[in-house]
Amino acid sequence: MRPLIKGALVSLALSLPVSAQDIPSERQNELKAVYQNDALSRCLVETDPQSDCIGTFRSTCAKLAKTEGEWFFCIESELEAWDSHLNWLYNLSMEELKKQAIEYDRPTGDHPLAMEGNLREMQRAWIPYRDALCGFAGSLTAGGTSITEEKLLCLNEETARQTLRLGKMVGYY
Fold first, then answer.
1. pLDDT number for residue 145
2. Predicted pLDDT of residue 9
């Protein structure tokens, strides 16, 4: 799952305004400080509903942003935080489902009734859906950097929603 997300981020980074790619590392660290110390996980534990965490850090980071490139960096940083949390939750869920399958003598692997196989299939189906949805969302804009911005915001929102959906399905939230 990770390479697909990385590929989407790389292709987006190539289409971002040049200024987004040229932010000095010390400035990147200032902007990314909003996401430090596992802030997203804390927000998800402390906030009800958890959906209120979507966009919170991007908004805080955006208040610090001085250029369009820095704004894009804020969006990308939140997307990376949600993606990281989704991957952690997915891996945690896969491990737990495999343990449950063994404990309760349920099918495993690619068996149609295997929970971890179905989770993997769901996640694999969600990725192209998300990409198509967000590609369409970007195409609805007037053009220029707004296409990239809308696509990136959509990727952010959909990744966050998938994280929350998976967390609820497996009883984490």
1. 72
2. 46
C-alpha 172/C-alpha 156 separation (Å) is 21
Using a 10 angstrom Cβ sphere, with 0-12 exposed, 13-18 middle and 19 or more buried, the burial of residue 168 is exposed
**Contact (Cβ atoms closer than 8 angstroms) between residue 69 and residue 19:** yes
User: In the Cβ-directed half-sphere of 86, how many Cα atoms lie within 13 Å?
Assistant: 26
Query: Can you give the pLDDT at residue 21?
Result: 62
Q: Supply the pLDDT for residue 111.
A: 67
Closest CA to 54 of 128, 132, 158: 158
For residues 132 and 139, give the distance between their C-alpha atoms in angstroms, rounded to a whole number.
11
C-alpha to C-alpha distance for 101 and 107, rounded to whole angstroms: 6
| Cβ neighbour number for residue 2 with a 10 Å cutoff | 11
**4: Cα within 13 Å, side-chain hemisphere:** 14
Q: Which residue has the tokens 């955006």?
A: 62
C-beta of residue 137 within 8 angstroms of C-beta of residue 146: no
Low-confidence ranges of the chain (pLDDT < 70): 1-21, 36-37, 108-113
Find, among 161, 128, 129, 133, the residue nearest to 54 by Cα: 161
Separation CA 78–CA 152 (nearest Å): 10
> Rounded CA gap, 37 and 153, in Å?
23
pTM: predicted TM-score of the whole model, two decimal places: 0.78
